[in-house]
Amino acid sequence: MKIQSQVSMVFHLDKCIGCHTCTIACKNIWTDRKGAEYMYWNNVETKPGTGYPTRWEDQDKYRGGWRLDQKKNRLHLRLQGKWGTLGNIFYNPYLPTLDDYFEPWTYDYQNLFDAPEGDDQPTARAVSMITGKYMDTIEAGPNWDDDLGGSQVYANNDPNLDGASEEERRQMQEIERVVFFYLPRICNHCLNPGCVAACPAAAIYKRGEDGVVLVNQDRCRAWRMCISGCPYKKTYFNWSTGKAEKCILCYPRLESEQPPACFHSCVGRIRYVGLLLYDASRLEQAAKAPQESLVQAQRDVIMDPFDPEVIAAAKASGVPDLKIEAAQQSPVYKFVKRWGLALPLHAEFRTLPMLFYVPPLGPVLAKMNKGMYDTADADSEGLTPMMSALEKSRMPLRYMASLLSAGNEQIIRDVYRKQMAVRLFMRAKTAKDVPAAEVEKALTEGNTNAQEAEAIYRLTALPTYEERFVVPAMERETAVEDLFPALDPVARNYPVHKGEVGIGYRRDPRRGP
Amino acid sequence: MSDIILLAVFPYVALVLGIGGGIYRYRHDRFSYSSLSSQLLENRRLFWGSVPWHYGITIVLLAHLVAFLIPGIWARIIAEPLTLYTLEVTGFALALAALIGLSVLIIRRLTQPRLLAVTTTMDWVLLAVLLLQVALGFWVSLFYRWGADWYVHTSVPWLVSLASFNPQIQYVASLPWIVKFHLLTGFFLIALFPFTRLVHVVALPFWYLWRPYQVVIRNRKM
Ligand code: SF4
Ligand code: SF4
What we know:
The complex is a heterodimer of chains A (513) and B (222). Chain A is an alpha+beta fold.
């Protein structure tokens, strides 16, 4: 057992209102720069939809993530082997181009002031932020299919719908029943990251202390393999500086006990940030699990922070006490492991993504009944139809499974049953219109109990800031002690490189000649 | 006199500039070491330019280098006429590939507004000098046959003499001016190395082949 700690996040999709505040907070802090205009380290997609960049989930096109060679039991980058990387270094055949994202633009506002007097109103034409030329037609944007859940053009092209039956598609598209939800995405800070593995220059690395995946731009030489290697398309290429960039999980904020900006600004308060303890010696095994048990394999890698054995192992591998305590308070641990409600996005890419999503409990199928909408099968007793209509949920189980459980529908069913049980349980408590037997039945079917349902309800609906964000400040002082021998004023053995403290000189990240 | 300056002094100046400047830039502005790929902005034409250019020029350059490093063995290899023909024809084809690739790259940059936005003056200088150098080499291989052979007896001893700090310009002094021009432009490119994106040549990451896939960095106890 080799225990490590990782900062991890849970997104409660039922609470996301698709306001994009997180995106804007992130953009204003990190990517409001030349060459980074098109980057969205945090973006919010409408699902079903094609996402950003367009159809990023289609790995036949982009070749991200890993593929399991079952015969040899080995993992290969779907992109190419190591020789392939060197051979394709002059031209990466699978790199998305700017047209898969969009050409960033601004508007010629000055014209509104400067236009000569004329017969018509002056306009502010779109101007490309790359070429500085006017753009006549804007053909794509960072959020082009926002809210177009039922659209034939966009939603229909969602790769997760590739296996959907005619019936399922109809179910999602009937005009009065169009259904969609929001999927906020940032870098998953994976345990088996494809971006790191694909970078031939070893410029990307995972930080041992908290698992944040970072690009060392002094080492990046623009070989741009990471962009292909990441199946989530969360590494970007700065066309101006010629360097890869990605979400840094706001590590300068995290180190000083402030949450990432996307978390902090989240209007729906859908995000939870906390530590997870995982067993690094089991990672390979988990990444190689058969597809249908990938989610379970990943859960198995996450260890119980209360188990004395785990605690001892964590201490042995240098996890500070403060972090072990934080891991015990972690809201992420509760959602992911204790309650089993939060699932990794596209586990079948085998990068072991470390952000988790509580699937949205979409509305169940409803029918017009005497001039009123009513759940399907509502004629049966009580509120049970909500449970029985699970299969008829307007968001097909298969779709959610394709997104969040590597195709394993049983996992989604279990999560939904538990969420429904919590709803019925709370409804019985507040509205008092559900018979006790129904509640009991729902709790059993949801594999939960009154106490757990109450806890889930509290952390879902009423959590305080301190319950949603539990990450201790980085122990900078011990980091310095760890890195350097005792400082000796006579020998003047002061640190000169990493771990330096105080103010140093800073150079702009400028493009080279 | 001008021969001495050009063939015995200039190469050293170029080397000092190239190597010294390269090291200086690496130590003081490592961030700027990048191939500055423009593939994100334009994809299709890059393929027809970058691939023939890079493969063509790399192999041709390696052949120059091999003949310089092991002239004896090289001379023995090309003593066989058939091998000499094959080498010359292959070299010719590769040089042609490089020339076409480079032209595609230049036209690509000239015609795409997105690429013009990321092309610096030094990029144009570099492209022009490279085009000149490849064209010269191409010309020499076309009109001064069997370069694979006479290179070993002229430029190689000159290069060896330069490397042993005892420059002997008589080996190359009487070569046609166009050949000398090719030699000088070669050294000029070395001088240009630290001032352009050429620096990415020394960054080719071969050790990726031996590295484990994952990289984890942590603070360690001393
Ligand atoms: S999600 Fe993040 S850590 Fe995972 S492969 Fe992509 S960029 Fe790397
Ligand atoms: S700020 Fe929160 S609620 Fe709004 S889109 Fe982002 S994740 Fe969803």
